[in-house]
């Protein structure tokens, strides 16, 4: 999965460079959040919108970073699987050659032609050594593949948790905004009634 495209520069909104590390992004986000938080700017629509933009920007930045790291891990997994398949196919070709060499037709023809089919001891040792090296390499790559898949599952779980936290935070902010708007509407209604009773 390729990273999702974005249209706004969320790094700029948060106030960090695009190559900033996660700690700096979080620190900058928290600083901007304190500046824009609704408790510090009670009742202003601009502060509410700015705070929500800040929250969205921080989430998108985090999400982009996670998606990119997941993309990289998936690419590593594909490369490891391809390497393992290559090593397995080499072993399969060698097994087919060995089976051909030990087939009854080859043995029968060698008996008729009185030729020896067997390789020298040195060639056998070299082939055996290469086979063992490939087996070791395959085992190592399979272990690395398992570890990489575990890392991928961990990153995906972290992303799911962060997304759930973001959605909960977004919902709480929306409830707070609705509550503020209700209070503002009630105050406006009360002022309108007071103005109506004074005129009457």
TrEMBL record:
Record keywords, A-Z: Coiled coil
Domain J: 9-86
Coiled coil: 138-165
UniProt keyword Cell cycle, yes or no: no
Database matches in InterPro entries: DnaJ_domain, J_dom_sf
Spans traversing the lipid bilayer: none
PROSITE patterns: DNAJ_2
Protein name: J domain-containing protein
Organism: Paraphaeosphaeria sporulosa
């Amino acid at each position: 999965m390729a990273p999702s495209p974005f249209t706004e520069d969320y790094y700029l909104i948060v106030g960090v460079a695009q190559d900033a590390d996660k700690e700096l992004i979080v620190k900058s986000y928290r600083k901007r959040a304190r500046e824009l938080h609704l408790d510090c700017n009670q009742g202003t629509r601009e502060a509410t919108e700015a705070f929500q933009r800040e929250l969205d920007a921080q989430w998108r930045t985090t999400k982009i970073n996670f998606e990119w790291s997941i993309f990289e891990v998936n690419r590593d997994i594909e490369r490891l699987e391809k390497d393992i398949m290559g090593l397995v196919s080499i072993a399969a070709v060698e097994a087919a050659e060995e089976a051909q060499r030990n087939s009854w037709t080859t043995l029968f023809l060698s008996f008729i032609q009185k030729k020896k089919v067997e390789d020298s001891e040195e060639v056998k040792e070299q082939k055996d050594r290469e086979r063992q090296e490939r087996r070791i390499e395959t085992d190592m790559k399979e272990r690395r593949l398992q570890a990489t898949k575990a890392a991928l599952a961990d990153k995906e779980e972290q992303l799911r948790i962060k997304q759930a936290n973001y959605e909960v935070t977004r919902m709480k902010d929306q409830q707070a905004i609705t509550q503020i708007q209700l209070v503002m509407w009630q105050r406006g209604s009360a002022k309108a009634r007071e103005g109506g009773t004074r005129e009457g």
